[in-house]
Amino acid sequence: MPLVPRLGSGIALVGRTQEMRRLGAAFARAERGEAGAVLLSGDAGVGKTRLLTELGEHVAARGALVLTGRCIDVREGGLPYLPFAEALAPLGTAADPGIAAAVRARPALGRLLPQGQEPEMPSAGEYGQVTANEREAMQRPRAEQDLGQLQLFDAVLGVLTEIAAARPVVILLEDLHWADRSTRNLLSFLLTRLRSQRLLVVGSYREEDVHRRHPLRALLAELVRLATVERVDLLPFGTAEARAFVEALSDEPLGADVVADIASRSEGNPFFAEELLASSAECRDLPAGLAEVLLARLERLAPDTRRVLRVISVANDDSVSHAALAEIAGLGESELDEALREAVQHHVLVIENGFYAFRHALLQEAVYGDLLPGERGRMHAAYAARIEAMPQGRGHDAKLAYHSLESKDFATALPALWRAMGEAEKLGAPGAALRHVEQALSIWDAVPEPGRPEGVDELRLLHNASYFAGTAGEPERAAAYARSATQVLTPDIPLERAAGAWRRLAETLLSQEGTVDEASAAIDRAWALVEHTEPSAARAWVLASRAGILRVLDQYEEALESALTAVSDARTVGAMGAEASALVTLGTLADSSGDPAEARERLCQAIGKAREAGALNVEVRAMYFLALSYDDQAELAAALEHVERGVRRAEESGLTWSAYGLELRARHLQLRYLSGDWPDEDAAGRAGRGVSSAVAARILGVWALFVVARGRFDMAERLLPGLRRHWASDIQIALSGGDAVSQLAYWRGQYAEAVRAAEELIDWLEKIEPSLLGGIRIAAHGAAAAAALAAEGRSRGEQRVVEQAVAAGERFLAHGRRCAAEGMPRSGTLGPEGRAWVARLEAASSGLGGDPAPRLWAAAAEAFGYGAVYEQAFCRWQHARALLAAGADAAEATAALEAAHAVAAELDAVPLRDALRDLGHRARIELTGAAAPSGTEGARTPADPLTDRERDVLERVALGRTNRQVGAELYISEKTVSVHLSRVMAKLGASRRAEAVAIAYDRGLLTAPAPSE
User: What is the predicted pLDDT for the residue at 515?
Assistant: First the structure.
């Protein structure tokens, strides 16, 4: 009997000491209530599954509940949430009453649990840990009316949290490189909410498969920045470990040359070593490629066995039933049994829960890739026929579509794709729905009309593709599909449908930068088609969309007329969704005319009617503008409340990354920045997986402001260059990203670079939208940098630098004033925020000629008192500086410093906090909670004779400052500086300033580099 090696999983784990130690430490932290996650990366066959198996056994022995799920490669579309469904499946049949109760309390889990195991509906008042989102899910009469993604995510997190309260839980997710968009979203949600649960999540993926454009790549880059997530790279064995592995693997002693040869050829890859060893008994001249190694081994098997393996490889699933093989393989029962027995004995197949699967995915890939086109097509057709005849439950249509596509049976694939699209939509997976409809479009022309789904034509497919692309956060593709829809219009298309296609194009174009003229032309085409028709729902929708576009174009009278007509038509024909859309525009027009009360009433009406009509996009849009109405008036608490409601509603509706879902999310982040509610977790600054780079940049641009303000300069350096490429995509990206660049340079003391960055942004804005109100903020930052640069130039005696800085500051002042005078506020007049930035601009500009004006900085601080706590703290810092420079009452400066320091410390705004402490140190003002700086009198040693103030003076003398300049920086008189210097020279035994500096360096009393003499 030929030598059959044992599987690597059948021997003791070789090597991997460091990796197991790190995984064990992560579990130990989870046991203590410090939830965490580990991302395990490595090449195919390097032993990721083996390591996770070892971890699972280790933690199970310590009482943990181990849940394992695997992704599979379905090549196109994907099965939403598959690894989570597999991992959580045991919970549905668990005998543990605590687990059963936790599952029953969350009906949303029924979407993941196997069919027939949907949790029972808990009675009112039962299970107090059920969230509001889950209660809402219970009350819905039809799940298909709601994509339900948020409820599902909440349910998964909730059930794991509840179970983990009783025992640690470890979730092992394998092959994340095959994860579909929905799985990636759920993984991101779960990992960003790890707090104090006794929970550990470990996910593995193939490093070489996550190429530059792979959808998992961006997710991994963001997850590893989380404090609760660590990455473990599983590298190939070293030479000694590879030899030990080969020796342990063999059932019989091997010669040293054989061991060395296999260890060398395997290049430290355990799976390569297993396959080389399995083949070496009968095949000495093995090819170098992995696929060839695998196939060389399989050639030893009987023909019937190889046929069965080919059949299983086509299944493209992790397991195949005996019945399916009996039907498709074309073998008798005894022949099939023998073939399967041989495959199992030779460790090619494994049996899992009564199903057959390849021991390793690489085996399946190698066998599948070796199939001839004809046999591949026939086998796919056989699987498709079986799936069509026997319903498979969730994912049935996606599987049927996949096999039908691969077998070129487009007549079967097309309706299956249409149904799979609908299923993905109901599961809250717009990305999967988009993929299915794109596949349907790719084969549309190949399917004769009788084989097409009833009521579906190419125009409808394109419309759906545009909708799902927009919902999934890909606005560029949404516009492209909408444009294609207008290109397939024919004269026999009803006018109302044609108008709808042009209206859809106009709406998708409106969400992109620089396409408003094209959007206007598109809505004009739509209006021309229905202008002279009788009132109808289509006409009302066109009028409503036209009103919104006219408002954007500042054609308020025409917008008002169109909106009122839309309301009238909609009420005539009962088109409540169109009426709601028109009411949104009427509300925004009321805001623009200075009547926020009417605006809010109209917007509330729109929200109610949109919800009643099921017009989710209109509802989210109305909620955005309602929040903006309060934001314009600086009613931050109310604005935050309404924007949070909008964000929640968008998540519940699957519209998180739709046009207004995105705007709500971005504005929510901006309001948190403004109001001082700064999130701790980096997840707040990340967009969803699979969204376009421009959408991701929209969120990341706002997040960059937090990153800079908290002093995370290295991270900011990585983020900001990528944002620059997206300025043209969305002007808000330019405003936030460019602002962050300027502030980063300012806080680093690179004032010339800060001035340059602000000038670059203003020049760019002027070409796109002159006198934009956002330019006031950029000008204020630029003026502050210019004033600091001028002061620096004066201290160094660099007159040319001073002149250039003052000139730049004056340009900033002029630009900001012009923006304030000519800009178009949404509410008709400049609001509190705009007025505050004007005050700050004037205050910053007052320092261009020398010492700034304290009264102007006091006015700026007061202007930001509407709730902009960080900006107010900055102004108070500058106010204190101005007071101290002017020699004013120290009590007022102390009060301003204390107030600003309290805010900076609470926000962990490190650059501002340190600047406040430095100012307090130089002015000898002791701030509450500020640590004593190094080198203070209290920290002196007998070898350090200098006092705190003496060291301050000597440090500045070492930098080449004059006595007058030192006094200005330390807010003391020139005479006092001279007295301190005399004392320093006496203590150090020096006769002149330069000698005192040199002695201080020699004795280690100064750490800054000595100036050249």
Answer: 79
